[in-house]
Amino acid sequence: MTHLTLQAVTRRFGAVHAVDDVDLSVPDGKLVCFLGPSGCGKTTLLRMIAGLETPSSGSIHFAGRDITWLPANRRDFGMVFQSLALFPHMTVAQNVAYPLKLRKVAREKQTRRVAELLELIRLPHMANRPVTQLSGGQRQRVAIARAIASEPQLLLLDEPLSALDAKLREAMQVEIRLLQQRLGITTIMVTHDQREAMTMADEIVVMEKGRIAQVGKPLDIYRDPVSEFVADFIGLGNILPVQYDGAGVVSLPGGRRIAVTPSPSAPLADARQPVASGDAIRLLIRPEDICVKAATETPDANRLPGTVIFIRDVGASLEATIDCAGFTLTAATTPRETPGLALGMPVLAELPPHACKLIAARTA
Ligand code: ATP
């Protein structure tokens, strides 16, 4: 069931189209991430869903009801923002109980619910501690417990982890995701961190300049980005300007021709137009799809000779930058796959035709 639907939602600030004609459905019980670079409209879109901002045009429906003009305090959504806004003069338990108190929930029921929530966020032993004496991650958990205390049907999170250090942030990503799945609460989270979105989301909404660039499951977007912008924003990728020569062949920068699987009539990834011979397009290949071979192996059109110019060694995996005369490629490999890989080494970078995606070039 679709819980939340946005139809042609637009928000202008003077001449700025912060959110521009957005249509979106958020299914029940899922975690959806709004992802995009700074200024693309993520927060404005979330604030309109929260009722903290009104659309210039368009409509928002929740559980079948038009809520476009409903004030925030009547939407009953849970919210956690970057600045957590916990009450510093209150204890952990008092913070979590606050929304229940506002709703005049009976005292015993409040106590029971707070105990349940503190158990859920694994801080039952800290009920009486002032929130000022908690670590960043603990404060984060209290903010989430407070947001879900009154069992909201929708949880809105705006960069809730951005103030945490990398390690704690990763731990909290898993924690929030597990909690969300356990409670089955429909959740929308704003982030500009693509790894965070890939880790946590059922669906990612990639935004570009106020518009939706692509919506889909994390891996589908990673594997089949619809545009150069999305390909570039999600994951590491080698994006090369190429020319389509027809019959599944493209010319790389410098003129070398390689085979790609898409046939001449196949549409570009964005489905706007079929690939035609002579088209200037982009070839996307992910680092893990490039096979690094010894220079002594049999040459082939899709095995490009090059020289290793940089190696990032992170123990179990290696990232090699290969200069192919005219362009560079980044390949992900392991010490086992490519033993003895060293700087200055001549290699063959193999681009399997099926892993070469053709995408429309970014328009100005
Ligand atoms: P960030 O990741 O930096 O928070 P964002 O993707 O959340 O960015 P928004 O905060 O939604 O982006 O802003 C979208 C655009 O709208 C930006 O150009 C911003 O300057 C503009 N904007 C947002 N709020 C206002 C406002 N109250 N008045 C004027 N312009 C605004």
Question: What is the terminal separation in angstroms?
Answer: 38 Å
CATH class (first level) name of the largest domain: Alpha Beta
Shape: elongated
CATH topology of the largest domain: Rossmann fold
Classify the beta-strand content into a percent band: 25-35%
According to CATH, the homologous superfamily of the largest domain is P-loop containing nucleotide triphosphate hydrolases
Q: Which strand order does the major sheet show? A: 6-7-8-3-9-10
The appropriate CATH architecture of the largest domain is 3-Layer(aba) Sandwich
Main pleated sheet? 6 strands, mixed
How many distinct helices?
A: 8
Order of helices and strands: EEEHEEEHHHEHEHEEHHEEEEEEEEEE
